[in-house]
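Hello, quick one for you while I still have it in my head. My current little project is about how a certain protein chain folds up. You're getting the sequence in one-letter code plus the fold written as tokens. Would you mind checking whether the tokens look sensible for this chain? Here's the protein in full, and shout if anything looks odd to you:
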Amino acid sequence: MTTHTEAEIASQPDCWRRAVSEVSTDALPRRGERVAVVGCGTSWFIAQAYAVLRERAGHGETDAFAASEFPAGRSYDRVLALTRSGTTTEVLELLRSAGTATTAITADPETPVMSLADQVVVLDFADEKSVVQTRFATTQLALLRAHLGEDLTAAIADAERAVADPLPAELLAAEQFTFLGRGWTYGLAVEAGLKMREACRAWTESYPAMEYRHGPISIAGPNRVTWMLGEAPEGLRGEVEATGGAFLESALDPMAELIRVHRVAVARAHAQGLNPDEPLHLTRSVILSS
């Protein structure tokens, strides 16, 4: 029987298409604003990716923080909070005390974030029943990329391929994964590692690609995968393969390549008798008692 997670993973191309064509971006940060993007867990990693993309597109200085680590006293024109549930304690506390314009992106319009943020973008069509975030995370990033002026036509086509293509057997049997990224895709690499830990309890690590040579490559070897999201630094493939490890790189849009990671995580969960809808020790939202 197909799990909620599998259905949500497969729906990502359609969700991206809807986000790009149907959702108003009027509430999102304006060009020239100094912006802090905050979230927890997956949302923090998506914030990291967006911060790099926004600066690269010339829209203004953009920092990304875990909501619990937001630097008190630093001045911003806007705080953009990413929160699927709309109930995460650290995010709500920050919105209460932000002292500047606030925008939130959420999946649930019946949650406290609706009244705490000045403006809210609701992606309810991308909400999820699974604890593990897949389509909401990528859909909000698709929306943010489109708002920065990117044409996501090719990315959506790549996502459709990522949903349908068979998975290499070596990815289902490997004992260890290291995910690498550069620039905005480093946030995706960290998110990829998290998805594998959450869904199938895999041993994963994540690094900026150019940092991999500075120690972490020592973990590479037979039956271990170094998985690049985006374009790899020159020569890195050869260095990894010299260890006996596998080096995986794809021409797909990095956000679409993340879908392949989602699918591998679920396939490995099933192979271990785990339910990817209900990862161990996790809940849909972290709500701390006062």
In short: Residues 199 and 276 are 5 Å apart (CA to CA). DSSP finds eleven helices and nine strands in the chain. The longest strand covers residues 101-106.
